[in-house]
Amino acid sequence: MCIKILHRYEINFLEIENHENHVHFLIQGIPIMSVFKIVQIVKSITAREIFLKHKEVKKLLWDGNLWISGFYANTVG
Known about the structure:
- The protein is an alpha+beta fold.
- The chain has one domain.
- 42% of the residues lie in helices and 17% in strands.
- The chain is globular, with a radius of gyration of 13 Å.
- The model has no long low-confidence stretch (mean pLDDT 92).
């Protein structure tokens, strides 16, 4: 999924760290794309792909959502 996102949107995943119940991404994007847009793209594509490949996951999640509505972002310019 991350490679597809890279090629389509020029969003590069530098690091992915998985914890017990959450994930951290270190992402590099193009300067003209807002942080909100990058997060929106990553969340929507990953959720859609996971739900297509693993239909049972949606039933196991709180309210059927893979991601919470918020996010934390730190930028370097």
